[in-house]
């Protein structure tokens, strides 16, 4: 089992024939992802990577029955692409593109919600169900099948965490990179309960960072609803106040959103909080050994 | 991207948000000319830097004659202004804004920012203008009125009513003026892809008019492409030289005050690396995210920028290759050591895609000062030891 996606999930790629879209779609196909086609306006009818290209998402969905879209279009066109996917009946859009304007995402997210379409990202590595389905840009070979679910704002920390879990002799059910932009799709609050429901997931790794209050909301939810052990790391304990650390999300304004505050809230909810990402693997091994 | 007060007020004026009359000056004589044109009889001479707290730092002063304008402009231009937002090193003042004095009856506060939880803009207002708003939020949170505006419908009448009744404005003309003010501010926030607008203080004059006495604006960097007029307001002298140089090469760099230089891929792992160094008893000298397209040139540039900092005693290269191939980074490090004199120990941890090949490349090259590490913990420990001169 897994959450959100598996080997049968039918995926299309928006921005299929572009440089990034092509490169990563090919990697996903190699991993075994069931990519059934892609969308690039004015290239409908062509074939790319052995899959059909469509002019519109509607056409792609009607022809292939795809339910998930992986979005690689340039930043200025992300909102349009997300809304097109929602309008065509896509159930989950995974937005990889970095640098989409916040205002655009404000409108796009509202539209997606109205059409019952879930979103992941933007500016994220995507989602992977180990050895079944990779929708994103993560290095597939790290993710071995196992019983640990992973949610992370940061891309490379997702890899770091998964790698350590695997080195300890465990593996991953599904890993979701939710992104660190000011406005994102699915977050801890929605994904934690999915892992709680998933019979194969026995422990959860949650990686957050400074800025915003998503981790604080997650702490509340864990206390009330999550019975499986959770290991957490919050990046940015040593980040100076008011400085921007690459992600727009990583801004500390005043006291809200500090690493210390988030770590304390998670600890109070019974989460095993580690102070260095180098401890994630060991902490997972510990909580699983206790079970 | 942030802009100066005088630039924010230019945008305000374009949208009909009332501001005092004012003119920018780079030289003392220009300041006096501006004052003459404005007419007086009272002027305010305001230092233009990208930081709050200018008044307390001595960068905002009242002049009652042209001679006083001259004196104050002379004093403020070229001064290093230290405020709670500039850091102890302060900022050099290169421009002064000469503004008409205003008849202040009371001081309010008004801002528009993104409410991340609600995923829409929020307007915040308070009767406690002129104070540090974070202090107000902490001590008397009930004095801050918050109104979320759903962008799909925009600013409605009820948003305005909640603001004016919250602020205790009872006069009908004043109510209309304040609602109009807030609505224009919301519009210019949305239309310009602003990240935040803050007016503190927003004053009420003796005649009951509302005027933006100050103005701070920040913009969404991702949206600057569609606002060339705002991009043109960028003041390079306000930006850190090294950070700017780094960004030209796709590197995201922030200087810190520790001893261990860091070069990492991904913002999260970069912060996590700093945290690990700190946890092991060391101090990070910088944040550096090499991004997803690191190559020999960018790695060399990274070394160059890190090594400019004289406090750096060791460098920790921590790369988890996903799409970035480790062998390419290894070659980058080899190239970089030819281009830049790397005189401190460099601890290298390369994991992920093509890591074994990378290890082989580094081993065969056998460069002085380059020390391989097996994982994050090992690398951080070695970097901390190296910085102490004990490796």
Short description:
Chain A has nine helices and 14 strands. Chain A is an alpha/beta fold and 291 residues long. Chain A folds into two domains: 11-120, NAD(P)-binding Rossmann-like Domain (Rossmann fold, 3-Layer(aba) Sandwich), CATH 3.40.50.720; 138-290, Succinyl-CoA synthetase domains (Rossmann fold, 3-Layer(aba) Sandwich).
CATH architecture of the largest domain in chain B, by name, is 2-Layer Sandwich
Beta-strand percentage of chain A? 15-25%
The profile of the biggest β sheet of chain B is: 7 strands, antiparallel
Major sheet strand order of chain A: 3-4-2-1-5-6-7
| Domains of chain A (count) | 2
Please describe the biggest sheet of chain A, giving its number of strands, its sense, and whether it closes into a barrel. 7 strands, mixed
Q: Assign the CATH topology of the largest domain in chain B.
A: D-amino Acid Aminotransferase, Chain A, domain 1
Helix count from the secondary structure assignment of chain A: 9
Number of strands of chain A: 14
Q: Briefly note the structural class of the backbone of chain A.
A: alpha/beta
Superfamily at the CATH H level of the largest domain in chain A? Succinyl-CoA synthetase domains
Helix/strand order of chain A, N-terminal first: EHEEEHEHEHEEEEHEHEHEHEH
Proportion of β residues of chain B?
A: 25-35%
- Counting DSSP E segments of at least 2 residues, the number of strands of chain B comes to 19
N-end to C-end Cα span of chain A: 20 Å
Query: Count the helices of chain B. How many?
Result: 13
Tally of domains of chain B: 3
Architecture per CATH nomenclature, i.e. the level-2 architecture of the largest domain in chain A: 3-Layer(aba) Sandwich
Class derived from helix and strand content of chain B: alpha+beta
Mean pLDDT across residues of chain B: 92
The CATH superfamily of the largest domain in chain B is known as ATP-grasp fold, B domain
């Amino acid at each position: 089992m897994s959450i959100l996606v598996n080997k049968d999930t039918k995926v299309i790629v928006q921005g299929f024939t572009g440089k990034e879209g092509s490169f990563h779609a090919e990697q996903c196909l190699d991993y075994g992802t069931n990519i059934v086609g892609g969308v690039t306006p004015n290239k409908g009818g062509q074939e790319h990577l052995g899959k059909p290209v469509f002019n519109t998402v509607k056409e792609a969905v009607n022809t292939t029955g795809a339910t998930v879209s992986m979005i690689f279009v340039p930043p200025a066109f992300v909102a349009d692409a997300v809304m097109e996917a929602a309008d065509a009946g896509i159930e989950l859009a995974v937005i990889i593109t970095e640098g989409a304007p916040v205002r655009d995402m404000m409108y796009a997210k509202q539209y997606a919600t109205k059409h019952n379409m879930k979103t992941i990202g933007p500016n994220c590595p995507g989602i992977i169900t180990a050895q079944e389905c990779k929708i994103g840009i993560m290095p597939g070979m790290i993710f071995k099948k196992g019983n640990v679910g992973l949610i992370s704002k940061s891309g490379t920390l997702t890899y770091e965490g998964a790698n350590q879990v695997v080195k300890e002799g465990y593996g991953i059910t599904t890993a979701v990179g939710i992104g660190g932009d000011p406005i994102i799709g699915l977050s801890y609050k929605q994904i934690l309960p999915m892992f709680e429901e998933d019979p194969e997931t026995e422990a959860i790794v949650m990686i957050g960072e400074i800025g915003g209050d998503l981790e604080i909301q997650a702490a509340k939810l864990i206390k009330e609803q999550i019975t499986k052990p959770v290991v957490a790391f919050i990046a940015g304990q040593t980040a100076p106040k008011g400085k921007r650390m690459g992600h727009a999300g990583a801004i500390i304004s005043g006291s809200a959103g500090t690493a210390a505050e988030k770590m304390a809230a998670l600890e109070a909810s019974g989460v095993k909080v580690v102070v260095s990402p180098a401890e994630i693997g060991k902490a997972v091994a510990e909580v699983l050994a206790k079970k | 991207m942030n802009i100066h007060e005088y630039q924010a007020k230019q945008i305000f004026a374009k949208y009909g948000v009332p501001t005092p009359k004012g003119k920018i000056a780079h030289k003392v004589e220009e300041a006096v000319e501006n004052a003459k044109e404005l007419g007086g009889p009272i002027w305010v001479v305001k230092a233009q830097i990208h930081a709050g707290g200018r008044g307390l730092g001595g960068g905002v002063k009242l002049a009652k004659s042209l001679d006083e304008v001259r004196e104050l402009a002379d004093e403020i231009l070229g001064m290093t202004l230290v405020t709670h937002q500039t850091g102890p090193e302060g900022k050099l003042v290169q421009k002064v804004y000469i503004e008409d004095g205003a008849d202040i009856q009371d001081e309010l506060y008004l801002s528009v920012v993104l409410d991340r939880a609600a995923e829409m803009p929020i307007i915040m207002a308070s009767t406690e203008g002129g104070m540090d708003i974070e202090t107000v939020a902490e001590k008397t949170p009930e004095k801050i009125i918050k109104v979320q505006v759903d962008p799909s419908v925009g600013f409605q009448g009820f948003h305005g009513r909640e603001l004016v009744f919250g602020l205790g404005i009872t006069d009908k003309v004043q109510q209309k003026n304040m609602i109009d003010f807030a609505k224009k501010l919301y519009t210019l926030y949305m239309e310009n892809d602003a990240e935040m607008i803050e007016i503190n203080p927003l004053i009420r004059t003796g005649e009951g008019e509302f005027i933006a006495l100050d103005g701070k604006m920040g913009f969404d960097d991702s949206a600057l492409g569609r606002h060339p007029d705002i991009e043109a307001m960028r003041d390079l002298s306000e930006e850190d030289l090294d950070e700017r140089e780094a960004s030209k090469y796709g590197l995201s760099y922030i200087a810190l005050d520790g001893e261990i230089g860091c070069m990492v891929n991904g913002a999260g792992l970069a912060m996590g690396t700093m945290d690990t160094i700190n946890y092991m008893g060391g101090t990070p000298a910088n944040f550096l995210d090499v991004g997803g397209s690191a190559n020999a040139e960018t790695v060399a540039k990274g070394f160059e920028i890190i090594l400019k900092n004289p406090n750096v005693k060791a460098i920790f290269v921590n790369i988890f290759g996903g799409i970035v191939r480790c062998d390419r980074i290894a070659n980058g490090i080899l190239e970089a050591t030819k281009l830049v004199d790397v005189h401190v120990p460099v601890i290298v941890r390369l994991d992920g895609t093509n890591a074994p090949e990378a290890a082989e490349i580094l081993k065969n090259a056998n460069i002085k000062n380059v020390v391989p590490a097996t994982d994050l913990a090992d690398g951080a420990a070695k970097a901390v030891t190296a910085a102490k001169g004990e490796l």
